[in-house]
């Protein structure tokens, strides 16, 4: 056994953008949600967290576990991170007890390095990808036999929506009923291959850190909104069932209508919070109007907007409707943000104001689509000596 | 009996701004609401409709009833106007039947002239004041003995919220339960004299005609919002009771909190409509933030925002808190819009952005307060020959 060995495992993990929103915890300690949610996992070619987990007997015990996120040291002693690390170590310890020839990795300090290729905390689900990558990388380092669904129970404790980023394609997070949260986990609704034509165009209206964090915002909603209970208990269960059916039948019209009214319902409950929470700004509303305008002009739902806890608009559409959707929306954006597509529909004159707001307000566009779950990679961010790998030009 | 006589009666009628909102009809034909509402009648020194109703055997029958609103001819043959005129004529006819010496005014064409001293259909409750003035003026012309509450049944059929403008002070509109609407009428919660210190500062963010009319908007909400039923059946009844108690006890803290969350609840249901309805723009949100900022800084609720179906912010406050409220908000507005008051609180630095949005977005400010109901006036807009009175400089 090499006593100086640096043990390493690396993974990339995807962002997911919910079409049935997670908002509200029934148990803030265990990150148990008031309602189920459902998301599309996005391609890691475009948005990903890349994480290397390493451990070694040579790492100084006094420093404890460490995490560098985009080159900045982050605490791993928050309750959420501790919950993940403790669970993963405990699973590793079981393996070690059953097989004493295994190196005692659970007793070594962990050094973790993580990089996002997109701005942190800008409503782009960075914490989801981050915790999914963290859990997946450590599980790989520890050679844990647990399935992604089982690991999702652990990632959930780091960041609720992270549990959905452990799977690719179309993923539900079932709220569950048990007090210990053991049934509150990710479930595959359909793999990417079932409906690979799903595309997402992300209109970045602001890459600034948001005013109201999801964690504090959602608990304010639970505590003060009079409409929220109806949403959690009546509206979302109905929409979840309908959305699963739409995905099963590859019915974009159904998918899109539900996604849009779900986004509206979530933001309505934010507005019904005391004091009210606002994520949708003038740019967001302009995007909503233009998506509606495209659908009206085409005569069916070819594009669907959804907004997480931020002003950025995610527009879902099918590859077959690229010409209509991107052709039209690209014409409402600053030159050069997205490759022009010929043949988009002409929007009604009444939308000139919305076009102008979008043109001025959208600073960046990310074109992506449905993708796979976390992937093991050999591209380590920590070298064989336990040092951060210096990459040029990144 | 003077056969050429022009019979005239003139009234002014007030605007009212609801603190428990009317949104949704259970019977669109009779204008019966899904929920009760409650408003403050505003002073006619600042906002009013001035209406002269006249009738005469000399008016050409072929022309029928006519209405000039702000010098523009308006139809009186809409179902809503017809409902009012038919009811009022029928009440007059009963008087004439009982007393044949009365001139048969009910058989003469009506000529009505009406002027608002504020922009029409800009979310400033112009239709409320308009129909209240129309009904009150014709009732006076016909010397009807009905009480304002009884007349409110008629005004309601013209424009729902008009029923509340027939009374001064603090006025409820009870939704009622009967199918014929005979219990859906205005009720005095408290006269102006009970709590005369109530002030309203109206921040006019736009005097443009609104995109989505209240009438079509509210029925879209009833038809498509999943959260609306909870609002109408659970939230509003609770808030109505609490608001009446707050007014009874002259409890501004209670009044303000309920008013703000009621406004939020209403606009949340607009956002939950399919497609979503938006009345709150960036300027509205800036006003909300600044009102919250004042309250936080002062340490109690001294100002309360509310928004009707438009972006204009109505800020209620008590005369005793003028220094804090106006002193502070005036500093966030363009020079000259409102008289400066010394000694407003200093807002937190974080609100600089909101101040700038308000400074750029508010074009006009109306300072007013709680006021009386319609008032009979001798200032007629129609002269003794039945012609429009030409006023210079108006």
Automatic annotation (TrEMBL), chains A, B:
GO terms for molecular function: ATP binding; diphosphomevalonate decarboxylase activity. Pathway: Isoprenoid biosynthesis; isopentenyl diphosphate biosynthesis via mevalonate pathway; isopentenyl diphosphate from (R)-mevalonate: step 3/3. It catalyses: (R)-5-diphosphomevalonate + ATP = isopentenyl diphosphate + ADP + phosphate + CO2. It comes from Ramalina farinacea. Signal peptide: none annotated. Residues 13-185 form the Diphosphomevalonate decarboxylase-like N-terminal domain. NCBIfam families: mevDPdecarb (TIGR01240). Keywords: ATP-binding, Lipid biosynthesis, Lipid metabolism, Lyase, Nucleotide-binding, Steroid biosynthesis, Steroid metabolism, Sterol biosynthesis, Sterol metabolism. This is Diphosphomevalonate decarboxylase. GO terms for biological process: isopentenyl diphosphate biosynthetic process, mevalonate pathway; sterol biosynthetic process. It is an enzyme of class 4 (lyase). Residues 200-375 form the Mvd1 C-terminal domain. Belongs to the diphosphomevalonate decarboxylase family. GO terms for cellular component: cytosol. Its EC number is 4.1.1.33. It comes from the Eukaryota.
């Amino acid at each position: 056994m090499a006593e100086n060995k640096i043990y390493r495992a690396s993974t990339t993990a995807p962002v997911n953008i919910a079409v049935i929103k997670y908002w509200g915890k029934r148990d803030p300690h265990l990150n148990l949600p008031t309602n189920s949610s459902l998301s599309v996992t996005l391609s890691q070619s475009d948005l990903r967290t890349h994480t290397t987990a390493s451990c070694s007997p040579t790492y100084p015990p006094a420093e404890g576990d460490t995490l560098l996120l985009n080159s900045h040291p982050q605490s791993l002693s928050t309750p959420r991170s501790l919950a993940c690390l403790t669970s993963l170590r405990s699973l590793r310890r079981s393996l070690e007890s059953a097989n004493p020839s295994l190196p005692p990795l659970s007793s070594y300090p962990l050094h973790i390095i993580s990089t996002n290729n997109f701005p942190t905390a800008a409503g782009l689900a960075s914490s989801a990808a981050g915790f999914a990558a963290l859990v997946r990388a450590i599980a790989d380092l520890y050679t844990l036999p647990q399935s992604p669904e089982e690991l999702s129970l652990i990632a959930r404790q780091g960041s609720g929506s992270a549990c959905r980023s452990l799977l690719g394609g179309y993923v539900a997070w079932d709220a569950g009923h048990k007090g210990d949260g053991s049934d509150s986990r990710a479930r595959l609704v359909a793999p990417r291959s079932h409906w690979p034509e799903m595309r997402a165009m992300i209109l970045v209206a602001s890459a600034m850190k948001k005013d109201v964090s999801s964690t504090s915002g959602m608990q304010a909603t639970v505590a003060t909104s009079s409409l929220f209970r109806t949403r959690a208990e009546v509206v979302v269960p109905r929409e979840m069932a309908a959305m699963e059916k739409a995905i099963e039948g590859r019915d974009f019209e159904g998918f899109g209508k539900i996604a849009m009214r779900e986004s509206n319902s979530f933001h309505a409950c934010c507005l019904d919070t005391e004091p009210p929470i606002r994520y949708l700004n003038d740019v967001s509303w302009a995007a909503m109007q233009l998506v509606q305008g495209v659908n009206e002009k085409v005569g069916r739902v070819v594009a669907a907007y959804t907004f997480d806890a931020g002003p950025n608009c995610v527009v879902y559409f099918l590859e077959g409707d690229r010409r209509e959707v991107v052709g039209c929306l690209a014409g409402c954006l600053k030159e050069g943000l997205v490759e022009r597509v010929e043949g988009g529909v002409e929007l009604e004159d009444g939308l000139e104001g919305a076009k102008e707001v979008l043109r001025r307000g959208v600073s960046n566009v990310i074109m992506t689509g449905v993708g796979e779950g976390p992937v093991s990679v050999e591209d380590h961010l920590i070298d064989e000596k336990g040092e951060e790998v210096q990459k040029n030009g990144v």
